[in-house]
């Protein structure tokens, strides 16, 4: 359980809230690069941390992320004309550049300096990998750019998607560091999903449904180790890194690409689930990439032209009770991503954690909540930079290994859980 | 006779309605019972002080102990000093949390962990140490603790017990 006041602290991410301020210390995904595919393309309406924003790409290819609403009469700039180096409001022709600076007010005299004093709130927008990243904090405190491996490997080695998730960010994120649900909820996927099946580690998952857990601090967050029995008295460890506030990686399976997530608050009742796959030492195969596009693995099949999953709460996630009975989909829901999302959304827009009955196996979640709470309060009260801001903290990997019983997983895997460019990931 | 209009059973879907804030009001408002019988055991002298401070807070059913090993037999002592036997305390426990700060209680950790395992009692081990002073305790806890937090800090003890409704 979690006290209501702490639940509020951790789940509210709007302007001026402690957790909202914590998120503003980090670079985070704002949208996919594919959403602004060319110069002067249509602007994209976004909501992040409960702020309504517009992303656009100007005539020179510069990316901008600005207040959605024109400074004049408050019309939405989603209707804006993206032309000649700026976004023009079609209502009266006011024009803004990517920094939010007003550069034209047609109703004013030609030599007027009026527009120089008009500037919309704007945040940087930087393309790294398949993602446009933003930093919504104080520009004077802007940290170095993020260094997550999936975004830095060559484009042929990585793929990122996103989907709308209609619940608070925290309950979505908590699913990402909960290794014990895999054996049940995703048991069908371990057998059937082209991006999961066939790995030796899947056998250990299926054969031992009662993992032991170790939760260890890392510089940027946590490493959660889930231990299951393997052969010859050894243990199979799946090591999940969490980098604050909302990045996780799924431990790998065989030579499959490695999966991971960000959960980005849209507002307090919705988030974007970013999912990525990458391979550190080879290109994704055409079959792998197509499987991701088709919604396999941690990705979702979305309504064409949108980022809303085809299976969503408005159609009961296309529940198939026959396949549930047959075990093809343990919950009756197709797709690993939607298997997670359906249950997380069912917890309500903001989960009421005063009603939870946690068990020791939830220690990773308990610890993560503690770290988030402490970091938010330290930032609020003392201005302390939270863990995970330093890009050195981003250079982590997940791992899946078999170890002798007596070995501590982090001692044995300290090199495996650090990025070593060009070297294979530790995987079973 | 008018024909009854067909209603698609999926629209509006039960999930769409059930997951709204408005429907959350209709979840049953019944207090959740605390954990039945959590036992918190300090494995060494440093842990005793941590457990003593935790015990001073308000809990539902948690009981707090120190332990010692005499000739290979582990005995418990309530944090206020009353004697107890491991077997009796485990007979009614549903979760055991062991706290270590150094290697002094490694033998106790092994014995208690094994006894819990034999009785199917869930266990958690918290090692409150910033260095390798408790490596043997970690190793002793590892085979039997369902959850192990090496490198924990004192607030982890309270946060874990709170989360478990101890």
Automatic annotation (TrEMBL), chain A:
It comes from the Bacteria. Residues 27-134 form the Rieske domain. Keywords: 2Fe-2S, Dioxygenase, Iron, Iron-sulfur, Metal-binding, Oxidoreductase. Signal peptide: none annotated. It holds the Pfam family LigXa_C. GO terms for molecular function: 2 iron, 2 sulfur cluster binding; dioxygenase activity; metal ion binding; monooxygenase activity; oxidoreductase activity, acting on paired donors, with incorporation or reduction of molecular oxygen. InterPro entries: Cholesterol_7-desaturase, LigXa_C, Rieske_2Fe-2S, Rieske_2Fe-2S_sf. This is Phenylpropionate dioxygenase-like ring-hydroxylating dioxygenase large terminal subunit.
Automatic annotation (TrEMBL), chain B:
This is 3-methyl-2-oxobutanoate hydroxymethyltransferase.
């Amino acid at each position: 359980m979690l006290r209501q006041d702490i639940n509020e602290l951790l789940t509210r991410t709007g302007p001026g809230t402690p957790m909202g301020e914590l998120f503003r210390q980090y670079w985070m995904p704002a949208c996919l690069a594919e959403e602004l595919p060319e110069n002067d393309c249509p602007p994209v309406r976004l909501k992040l941390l409960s702020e309504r924003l517009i992303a656009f790409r100007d005539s020179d290819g510069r990316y901008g992320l600005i207040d959605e609403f024109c400074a004049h009469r408050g019309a939405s700039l989603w209707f804006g004309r993206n032309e000649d180096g700026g976004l023009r409001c079609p209502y009266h022709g006011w024009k803004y550049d990517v920094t939010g600076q007003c550069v034209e007010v047609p109703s004013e005299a030609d030599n007027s300096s009026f527009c120089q004093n008009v500037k919309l709130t704007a945040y940087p927008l930087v393309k790294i990998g398949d993602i446009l990243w933003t930093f919504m904090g104080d520009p004077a405190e802007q940290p170095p750019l993020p260094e997550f491996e999936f975004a830095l490997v060559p484009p042929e080695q990585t793929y990122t998607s996103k989907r709308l998730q209609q619940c608070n960010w925290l309950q979505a994120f908590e699913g990402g560091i909960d290794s014990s649900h895999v054996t049940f909820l995703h048991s069908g996927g371990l057998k059937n999903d082209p991006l999961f099946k066939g790995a030796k580690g899947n056998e250990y998952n299926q054969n031992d449904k009662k993992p032991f857990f170790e939760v260890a601090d890392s510089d940027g967050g946590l490493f959660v180790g889930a231990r299951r029995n393997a052969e010859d008295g050894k243990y199979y460890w799946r090591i999940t890194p969490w980098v604050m506030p909302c990045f996780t990686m799924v431990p790998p399976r065989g030579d499959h690409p490695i999966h991971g997530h960000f959960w980005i608050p849209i507002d307090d009742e919705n988030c974007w689930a970013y999912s990525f796959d990458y391979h550190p030492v080879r290109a994704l195969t055409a079959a792998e990439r197509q499987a991701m596009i088709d919604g396999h693995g941690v990705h979702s099949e979305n309504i064409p032209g949108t980022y809303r999953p085809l299976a969503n709460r408005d159609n009961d996630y296309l529940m198939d009770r026959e396949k549930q009975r047959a075990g093809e989909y343990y919950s009756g829901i197709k797709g690993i991503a939607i298997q997670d999302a359906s249950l997380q959304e069912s917890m309500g827009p903001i989960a009421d954690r005063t009603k939870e009955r946690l068990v020791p196996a939830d220690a990773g979640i308990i610890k993560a909540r503690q770290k988030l709470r402490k970091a938010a309060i330290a930032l609020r009260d003392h201005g302390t930079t939270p863990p995970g801001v330093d890009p050195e903290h981003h250079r982590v990997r997940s791992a899946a290994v078999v170890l002798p019983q007596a070995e501590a997983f982090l001692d044995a895997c300290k090199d495996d859980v650090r990025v070593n460019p060009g070297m294979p990931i530790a995987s079973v | 006779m008018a024909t009854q209009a067909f209603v698609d059973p999926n629209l509006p879907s039960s999930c769409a309605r059930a997951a709204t804030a408005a429907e959350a009001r209709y979840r049953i408002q019944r207090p959740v019972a605390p954990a039945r019988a959590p036992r918190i055991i300090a494995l060494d002298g440093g842990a005793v002080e941590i457990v003593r401070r935790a015990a001073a807070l308000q809990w539902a059913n948690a009981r707090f102990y120190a332990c010692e090993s005499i000739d290979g037999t582990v005995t418990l002592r309530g944090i206020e000093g009353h004697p107890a036997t491991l077997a009796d305390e485990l007979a009614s426990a549903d979760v055991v949390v062991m706290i270590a700060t150094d290697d002094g209680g490694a033998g106790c950790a092994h014995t208690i962990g094994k006894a819990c395992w034999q009785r199917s009692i869930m266990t958690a081990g918290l090692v409150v140490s910033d260095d390798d002073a408790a490596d043997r305790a970690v190793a002793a806890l590892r085979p039997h603790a369902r959850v192990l937090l090496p490198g924990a800090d004192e607030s982890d003890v309270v946060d874990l017990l709170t989360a478990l409704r101890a």
